[in-house]
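Support case: user asked for a sample of complex input and structure output to validate their parser. Sending the pair below.
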Amino acid sequence: MTDSKYFTTTKKGEIFELKAELNSDKKEKKKEAVKKVIASMTVGKDVSALFPDVVNCMQTDNLELKKLVYLYLMNYAKSQPDMAIMAVNTFVKDCEDPNPLIRALAVRTMGCIRVDKITEYLCEPLRKCLKDEDPYVRKTAAVCVAKLHDINAQLVEDQGFLDTLKDLISDSNPMVVANAVAALSEIAESHPSSNLLDLNPQSINKLLTALNECTEWGQIFILDCLANYMPKDDREAQSICERVTPRLSHANSAVVLSAVKVLMKFMEMLSKDLDYYSTLLKKLAPPLVTLLSAEPELQYVALRNINLIVQKRPEILKHEMKVFFVKYNDPIYVKLEKLDIMIRLASQANIAQVLAELKEYATEVDVDFVRKAVRAIGRCAIKVEQSAERCVSTLLDLIQTKVNYVVQEAIVVIKDIFRKYPNKYESVIATLCENLDSLDEPEARAAMIWIVGEYAERIDNADELLESFLEGFHDESTQVQLQLLTAIVKLFLKKPTETQELVQQVLSLATQDSDNPDLRDRGYIYWRLLSTDPVAAKEVVLAEKPLISEETDLIEPTLLDELICYIGTLASVYHKPPSAFVEGSRGVVHKSLPPRTGSSESAESPETAPTGAPPSEQPAVIPAQGDLLGDLLNLDLGPPVSGPPLTTAPVQMGAVDLLGGGLDSLMGGANFAAPPAGTMPANLGAPLGGGLGDLFDLAGGVGTLSGSYVAPKAVWLPAMKAKGLEISGTFSRQVGSISMDLLLTNKALQVMSDFAIQFNRNSFGLAPAAPLQVHAPLSPNQTVEISLPLNTVGSVMKMDPLNNLQVAVKNNIDVFYFSTLYPLHILFVEDGKMERQMFLATWKDIPNENEAQFQIKDCPLNAEAVSSKLQGSNIFTIAKRNVEGQDMLYQSLKLTNGIWVLAELRVQPGNPTFTLSLKCRAPEVSQHVYQAYETILKN
Amino acid sequence: MIHSLFLINCSGDIFLEKHWKSVVSQSVCDYFFEAQEKAADVENVPPVISTPHHYLISIYRDKLFFVSVIQTEVPPLFVIEFLHRVADTFQDYFGECSEAAIKDNVVIVYELLEEMLDNGFPLATESNILKELIKPPTILRSVVNSITGSSNVGDTLPTGQLSNIPWRRAGVKYTNNEAYFDVIEEIDAIIDKSGSTVFAEIQGVIDACIKLSGMPDLSLSFMNPRLLDDVSFHPCIRFKRWESERVLSFIPPDGNFRLISYRVSSQNLVAIPVYVKHNISFKENSSCGRFDITIGPKQNMGKTVEGITVTVHMPKVVLNMNLTPTQGSYTFDPVTKVLTWDIGKITPQKLPSLKGLVNLQSGAPKPEENPSLNIQFKIQQLAISGLKVNRLDMYGEKYKPFKGVKYITKAGKFQVRT
């Protein structure tokens, strides 16, 4: 007798038959019928037509039948709201039942019926159940509040259920506490701004007590809640850590990981010289390792988290390398994660073992895994310098296997090794060259071509090798084409005599026969370089390359810190903050690690410091180039990207020998024919945009008169660094609008077009208010002046120094980055005049430690002149006092982000040195305000 | 929290769905099927999949996929742990966790799922409590139920639910009071070509079967508790006592449960009980290869190594194998390319070996990779780490229980590279 009998359908009359059975007088028959209905429901069959008949069975003293009917109700009430009302009375009655199991069941089920009409009736029973004498009913009711909140948030607030729920945190029963915390956390997640889980030392204490006694699931909720608490000092942090540590020995891995999160977060506050700190570090390793012996799905999540932990605190697992060794029957997702962590833990001490393992993996069956293993060997070489030699010989061994994809991966990583250790391992080039023919993947081909080009002088037949690639030039991918072009130019510069034909061939292939703008542009650049100044060409093309950095795939420190706060959650699996992927996360609160309170920061010994930047350091990095570039490309650029009409209107310039001149000396007077030059852009050198520049000039002039002080333009981006584009500029503010006045000069020999600009996130959210409008392509030696309007609604990130602005400018040649400092006074707004009373109150209110004093020297102005001069830049004098012959000016100003700065300026007649006292709630701006004062007063 | 659960079999049929909040359409599983198709092997389906509106967190157990749907930020481990708990409960109730068993007991399954989770929050997951709420099916009970009309749902609140010892029910009575402990150790190891140990550790557990009346309070002590430095405890164990005295003190749940699990990783403690001599080679430009393995005892502490099985995933180009075992029997599955050699016991006088020829696909290049050997074995009456129970004491009850401790060592993931 099994339940499978419920699935045997009786063809067409099924529903009808069930209806008859449900209305049967016999209890047993009724129950069997309900079971059949439930069975159909579980497989997704629609049995909603039976609703009234099933609900009729609800009034029964048979608990099983009641439960079954409830199950059915939860599934179908929504589709039959009017019918569902029929059930309300029974629910209300059941909430008064002497049996707590029935009371709890009733309140639980009612909460699951997502019908407005029913929820109205739910309030009274729920209120009673929240205060029920039986804890089982209370804990069920706590969850019910969360359910109700999901259906009708307003109702829950109006009825005061949230307060009752908060009271339950102090309940005597740990299970009730855990469920109250779980319910509050869920409600808080949909209302990030609400202060539902307002934790204080007393409530923390209650949670910690409940933690020891509640079920494993309750422990997870409580630990996750604790992780959001910010202890007031390191002693409190330590005492919480001490009480959380036993959870590391729990059998439930989710409890363990949640405990790890709390500890990792609060550890941040502990001083590193504390004995307890190192004890804690030691205690963290075993549970993390234990997670790896669990089921593969658990291992995967654990490994993703361990990946974060080893980046933050590599010292925890540095001796546990072996547990990350891959077993051949691990699922692929576990293998790849383990490999990643092995590289992160690789150090001089264990590199031999790691390499032996990696070599073993490189002979496995799974292609993806093998590839990653080969790459890993290369990463080891780059990470651990002492191992580089061994890595290279391992890679050579692998190349000898002649397994196609192994060879290709090996060549890609060897290229990186050359970039890291130039002039060290070039002896292997010969071996690499032997495998040239077997390379069929673009990345490997490109890498090989790069190697040949870079070391052309050591490879006797470099020209032949490169020539062999040239035959199928147009079938290659862009990556390979670009690399081939550069490599041949390098070759030519190194061995000019034998390779002129080759270079001409590649230049003409790149510029004339290609549809790819990048390739064409690069071709032109080389062409012009070679034709005008071969010495410069040599400097540019054969310039010494910067060494590649040690580890390229580390998570950015601020993101890492945020992710540490999300250990154990989905965010930790995706390595992205929840705001980046959780749907409907309204204004998710960014979590951050607590600041360290001890004074030990300076005493940090180097070997315990994490490889990433210490957490207190301000992030001042430009995001990965790719990101910025991505942003730039996403910009809706004014002019569509289209090159100058290259082939339609050729201008005859054949007379100019593009590659002549200085090149002769280089080639020893060899006969060198100029390549056909019929494809130079038509509008080369056309005097365009000049008048426009004048216009801007005029506007600029007017602005200077009425607005605040504008510094003269300074060179921000020298032409050398930007392939011929020189940018100089300044900032100005006039009648409430900020602008960046730019002077773009084309010092290259090629027309520039398609300009666009983008700012990195900065302290005050400065961002371009309009796209960069350069109306015509910029011809060589032409200059254009542009005023770019700015606003302050961009995204904000604190920079160091505060007024640092990182800018990316793109044109048809490339993307260039520079950073500049903007004077703070462009951010002083026009309504920065404070009421006198207000000023007095605010001045008193701001604590004295926020006051900063500065000297302004050599300023021969009197108080009147000072005051009017400052007013021009939106620094307003509110009051003036004469004390003992000194003029005291009280001034205020407001920044675009609403920060008020109050100033007291002491001017002594006859003394050119002023004393400036600044008070501000954000004292870090004071220094920059002072600089603004100085610039304004001295100009 | 957990929104819905779908149970899917290997051929991709959704045979059960359960929703704890609003109903999520089955079509959400399409994303799962997509990922499943991408993964070459069922075991390789990634456990966390994101879809435009939901996240799918799944486990693969006993040839079934348990796919849960979640909508908000939830700890994935919490979900995975819970899913495993669901599978454990099915196993516990129906004796096996299979599609047939679940379909046969679909109403109980539904009742269980409803009892285990409320609005996505776990409610009762302890088997002791669940069994009081919902009685497991037995042939006898279903006969009795159909005669008397009584139900298999308990109608009193489980006693353990809210006490400080939620894992134990009250009023337990046995005529024979017994407490058995199984110390089970598994050796996970990777042995390299030359026979040296690359990595080895012991995963140990102590499983208990306690049938004691009333509220017994047990303490279990070890001869060498120092071995245990990385331990996970059942919630019943008093952590403080362990910290201070290295004694396991606890009021046990009733029935079968895992008391502790532990890990011994320090290399010198991990003895490797068997060694393998192997010679697997494929000739260049020929369609055959040689295969020769011999197994012998190593550090077996004087006990017999038994139940030995060797499994080898042969390379794809292997067509067939023609081997002769000196002991036991072997099978080779030409579809999955898995060679299984069932050996049995090792007798040191005559070491078991398996020798013969390997037939390769003609014309195919010689395989690059050498297969790893996966070895299973058992040693009775030995905990390879040397862990020994010293004594078991019982307080709180008057009767004298019957006590027993059994040791067994097994191979876990024991791999030999060739």
